[in-house]
Amino acid sequence: MGIVIKQSIQNTVTTYIGFVIGAINTLFLYTHFLTKEYFGLVGFVLSTANIMMPLFMFGVSNTLVKFYTSYKTKNQQNGFLTLMLFLPLLMIISVGLFGTLGYEWISNWLARKNSIIKDYTWLIYVIAVAMAYFEIFFAWSKIHFKSAFGNIMKEVFHRVCVMILLISVYLKWLTVSQFVYSLGGVYVLRMLIMTIYAFSIRFPKVNFNFNFNVGSVLKYSFLIIIAGSVAMLMLDLDKSMLGLLVQIDNIASYNVAIFIVTVIAVPSRAMHQITYPLTAKLMNEKNFKDLSNLYKKSALNLLVVAGLLFILIIANIKELYTILPQDYSQGLYVVIITAIIKLLDNLSGNNNSIIFNSDYYRIILFFGLLIIMVAIVLNFIFIPKYNINGAATASFFALSLYGILKVWYVNKKFKMHPFSKKTGPTLLLIVCISLLFYFWDFNFDPIINIVFKSLIISIIYGVLVLRLKLSNDISDIISRIITHRINK
């Protein structure tokens, strides 16, 4: 776990820096510098681009990680990398031609409930392409176990740019419309910078002599399109359907609520950057003993870290909403239900990596189609009745089912699961502290209340984690930090 812990910490720090910047943008700049209608438009454009992105990527980012280490010769690697570079163009060009021919119909259909969407429909395509190739070149760097720079670009760069653009709107250097178009330029620029970095690690030598099993690579890539689409649909389907079924300004409130709980997913995202290629390596080597150990440790460590973040959000959410504009206060239920989803997702550890890098990745096709159908049906039922609360409820049921199916399947095929004897006590600790501090408020200013309560919670939780020895890895890290500070 040494390399996992080291790079996960680096990525976690970077991700949290990005989160802090994103929090300033989402909770304060967007809510004060843009109208709810335009904030909702930004959410719709980015969410719809995210949904299209896996299709354009053609599963290449996952395919790179799974197959690259299995090719030992330079000739095979060059041929493989060449295929990975050009494969996404099949979808990108095809969809581009279809979109050009049917642009008027597509834009009218997307804008039938909210006319503001029509003029920005083409931007969804541009951002989706930029997102797709960014992820491909990020994977290009990850297969060489160099994820730090890519994580900065993924988590920090575009948020800094957005902050600058929002301030420019406030200073009247940009109109709101120019801001939306400039946002697309930020994603294109991010892709170009990531391309240069990836090529600096290994510049591609174009080789169309594919002396490897192209069929298995293409089959895997095709099925991973479904898997990637499921992941993106589960993240952004609700926002897109809100834009299609209700007034677009509701997405602004939903955006704020979802962003608040995004912090719980940060440890998983950071650890995933390194556990994914490591899982692929262990799978290729058939080292299932170490893989099972990685599975349990990653799940427990993520649960402990995410548990603290979950508690802090639940305990402080009422005070936080008193700080935000009154128009956004309807998202309290969304925060709570989505926080539970994120916490349970951390409990599954590197489950996704195991399935995607195994010979059983085809099951994602079935699970994916099932969950997408469930989510779409539930959204159509719940959103018209309960608005953003309905979208959150639909996501809860769909994602819970998806997580249960994946954990069950890995256990069935590999006889391993993410649970240990420390899982139960950790969950019990999280629930007890959450309930205690949700109903316990101090009669202070909301900001002072949040700071004071968070400090108390962090100390209590940290002490109990150490005393109960819930995670050896986390205890060792804390001990080394304390020892270093004392010696210093």
From TrEMBL:
It is found in: Cell membrane. It is a multi-pass membrane protein. The keyword Cytoplasm does not apply. The keyword Transferase does not apply. One of its GO terms (cellular component) is plasma membrane. The chain crosses the membrane at residues 12-32, 38-60, 80-102, 122-140, 156-173, 179-200, 212-234, 254-278, 299-318, 330-348, 360-382, 388-411, 423-440, 446-466. Keywords: Cell membrane, Membrane, Transmembrane, Transmembrane helix. Pfam families: Polysacc_synt (PF01943). It comes from the Bacteria. This is Polysaccharide biosynthesis C-terminal domain-containing protein. It comes from Lacinutrix neustonica. The lineage of its organism: Bacteria, Pseudomonadati, Bacteroidota, Flavobacteriia, Flavobacteriales.
